[in-house]
Design a protein that fits this description.
elongated; four-stranded antiparallel sheet; 4 strands; alpha+beta
Length: 173
């Protein structure tokens, strides 16, 4: 194996970031993915500010943009914050070394202690919400601490200022 290929494989193994692709992206794919991400962020912000009844209308433009792809939906099984994602291959067939799968996060959800969820649109918001939730996640935490964590997560979802967790902070996001 040549050094260049070995270096690429090592970088791929080390990356392990959400949405990271361990293959060479075909020309135009990066632009297409960036377009999908921008559409998803716009849709998420629309839903975030429009409420649950706005979901279908908010996501319509994203759905039209990605309709030509055969996608699969997924969600992580993490708490207190989980993420939704969309994955697809260039030709809609199962992924392979010559037909890599592309995935992107479309939204994050913070589980509230009082029940329900707060919709989040960026990884930065998700990390901040996870940090807020973790501050009240202990068997000895009081209801008041959990209420403060819920209020912080709802504030983050409404775009209010917050302090995100430092890089490398343990968590699902």
């Amino acid at each position: 194996m040549n050094r260049s290929r070995m270096a690429k494989m090592l970088l791929c193994i080390l990356s392990l970031l959400p949405g990271a692709a361990c293959h060479e992206t075909k020309p135009g794919a990066a632009t297409e993915i960036a377009t999908f991400k921008a559409e998803a962020l716009s849709a998420c912000r629309c839903e975030q500010h429009g409420g649950p009844g706005a979901k279908k209308g908010c996501w319509a433009k994203f759905e039209v943009a990605i309709a030509k792809k055969q996608t699969s939906d997924g969600s992580t099984m993490c708490a207190p914050v989980y993420e939704d994602s969309r994955c697809w291959t260039a030709d809609g067939k199962p992924s392979s070394p010559t037909n890599p799968e592309h995935c992107m996060t479309t939204a994050y959800h913070a589980l509230l202690y009082c029940g329900g969820e707060a919709l989040l649109c960026t990884e930065k918001e998700a990390k901040a919400a996870e940090q807020a939730a973790n501050s009240a996640d202990s068997p000895t935490a009081s209801q008041a601490q959990r209420d403060v964590a819920d209020a912080a997560m709802r504030s983050i979802a409404h775009g209010e200022p917050y302090v995100a967790a430092a890089p490398g902070t343990p968590g699902c996001v």
